[in-house]
């Protein structure tokens, strides 16, 4: 395992190597406790793996009675990758076959990012700006407006703010995903950074936003700053990453393209950005309320039909109460009010027949001429239905 860690240290970040070491040590602890007779990696097989999974699930977590599902999945995934790699590398220490399968790693729930709603975000920013400590207001506003990861924020160098043309840009150096990027910087943030540095940062300091005493900020300090402002705003505990999710959610629901959001957040894959498209999806909302308006016509005023007119006499009622439209009939009973007289073609009570085909064609052509694509699509659907019915 030591040799394996030396190899992965060449391709993984130090933090990932440390985590891998911890995960492998956990498996080694299990082997010592439960399978003391197994003294080589090559001797590990399915019995050891199948025993390790329930043993791991029963382990206590940090300040919790058990490990979280995500931690269990991560440790099993790291262990499986260990066996897969040493097998691919042809190491003589590898078992005769990889003892772990893809199905040994539990499928994880894909929860949507948790963002602050607009009201909470505004309250947080207001409270941060009112804090007498300048660094708290700067930190909260910077993260809300840029969506930086905490590590990216604390590592910003003094020359990170650059002027290109008439726009200030923030240079975010290579970080978690090995991506180097620039993102536009709000003019107000440029002023805040300048004011803080003038008051608290000595000339020539390497960092853009250090502590007032010059030391580098860390994620724990940033978390404290955010939650001090959050407490003043009456908000529960806030993880700094929620500010990143908040900016992305605000952006996508105000019309910013996924490509632009991916570039802003430094995502390598669009799959990472697409999760934000599932939050308060504008297209889903628009289509839902369009349909809801039509459905409301059925529920707004319930029909109160005379008892003697129900059952076999319903078809007679439909004939008596249907109203001739420009291209068909409305079969809505007279006792039911209609709040949507202008959208009859999409009403559930609308009917048409082949005799209205010329009218429908003219209406479809008129919609196409005017660029009314959704209206044209309604007539196309009606005409298709007529053709299908006539063919049958």
Describe the structure.
It is a single chain. The chain is mainly alpha-helical and 392 residues long. The chain folds into three domains: 2-104, no CATH class; 118-278, Intergrase catalytic core (hpI Integrase, Chain A, Orthogonal Bundle); 312-391, no CATH class. The protein is 52% helix and 5% strand. It contains 16 helices and six strands. It has helices at 2-8, 14-34, 46-57, 69-88, 118-130, 134-146, 150-154, 187-200, 219-232, 241-252, 258-265, 270-274, 282-299, 314-321, 357-369, 373-391, and strands at residues 161-164, 167-172, 181-184, 323-324, 329-330, 350-351. Strand 1 and strand 2 (167-172) form a beta hairpin. The model is unreliable at 305-312, 319-324 and 334-342 (pLDDT under 50).
The assigned structural class equals: mainly alpha
**Domains counted in the coordinates: how many?**
3
CATH class value of the largest domain: Mainly Alpha
Q: What is the overall shape? A: extended
CATH architecture designation of the largest domain:
Orthogonal Bundle
- Counting DSSP H or I runs of 4 or more residues, the number of helices is 16
Strand content: 5-15%
- Output the helix-strand order: HHHHHHHEEEHHHHHHHEEEHH
In whole angstroms, the N-to-C terminal distance is 72 Å
Could you report the average pLDDT, rounded to the nearest whole number? 82
CATH topology of the largest domain: hpI Integrase, Chain A
Q: Helicity, in percent?
A: 40-55%
- Major β-sheet profile: 3 strands, antiparallel
- What's the number of extended β-strand segments? 6
Strand order of the largest sheet: 1-2-3
Low-confidence stretches: 305-312, 319-324, 334-342
């Amino acid at each position: 395992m030591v040799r394996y860690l030396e190899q992965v240290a060449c391709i993984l970040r130090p933090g990932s190597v440390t985590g891998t070491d911890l995960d492998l040590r956990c498996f080694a602890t299990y082997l010592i406790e439960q399978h003391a007779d197994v003294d080589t990696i090559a001797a590990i097989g399915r019995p050891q793996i199948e025993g390790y999974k329930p043993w791991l699930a029963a382990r206590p977590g940090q300040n919790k009675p058990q490990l979280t599902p995500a931690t269990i999945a991560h440790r099993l995934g790291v262990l499986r990758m260990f066996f897969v790699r040493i097998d691919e590398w042809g190491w003589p220490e590898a078992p005769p076959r990889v003892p772990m399968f893809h199905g040994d790693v539990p499928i994880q729930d894909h929860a949507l990012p948790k963002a602050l709603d607009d009201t909470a975000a505004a309250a947080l920013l207001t409270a941060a700006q009112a804090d007498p400590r300048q660094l708290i207001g700067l930190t909260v506003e910077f993260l809300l407006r840029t969506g930086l990861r905490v590590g990216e924020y604390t590592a910003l160098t003094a020359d990170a703010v650059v002027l290109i043309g008439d726009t200030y840009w923030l240079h975010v150096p290579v970080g978690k995903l090995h991506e180097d990027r620039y993102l536009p910087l709000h003019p107000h943030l440029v002023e805040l950074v300048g004011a803080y540095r003038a008051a608290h940062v000595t000339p020539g300091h390497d960092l853009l936003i250090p502590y007032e005493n010059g030391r580098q900020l860390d994620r724990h300090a940033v978390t404290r700053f955010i939650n001090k402002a959050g407490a003043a705003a009456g908000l529960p505990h806030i993880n700094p990453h929620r500010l990143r999710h908040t900016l992305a959610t605000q952006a996508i629901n105000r019309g910013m393209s996924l490509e632009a959001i991916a570039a802003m957040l430094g995502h390598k894959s669009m799959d990472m950005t697409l999760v934000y498209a599932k939050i308060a999806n504008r297209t889903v909302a628009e289509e839902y309320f369009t349909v809801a308006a039509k459905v409301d016509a059925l529920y707004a005023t319930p029909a109160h039909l005379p008892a003697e007119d129900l059952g076999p006499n319903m078809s007679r009622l439909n004939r008596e109460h249907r109203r001739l439209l420009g291209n068909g009939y409305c079969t809505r009973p007279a006792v039911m009010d209609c709040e949507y007289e202008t959208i009859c073609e999409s009403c559930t009570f609308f009917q048409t027949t082949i005799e209205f085909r010329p009218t429908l064609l003219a209406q479809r052509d008129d919609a196409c001429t005017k660029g009314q694509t959704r209206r044209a699509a309604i007539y196309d659907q009606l005409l298709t239905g007529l053709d299908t019915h006539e063919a049958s």
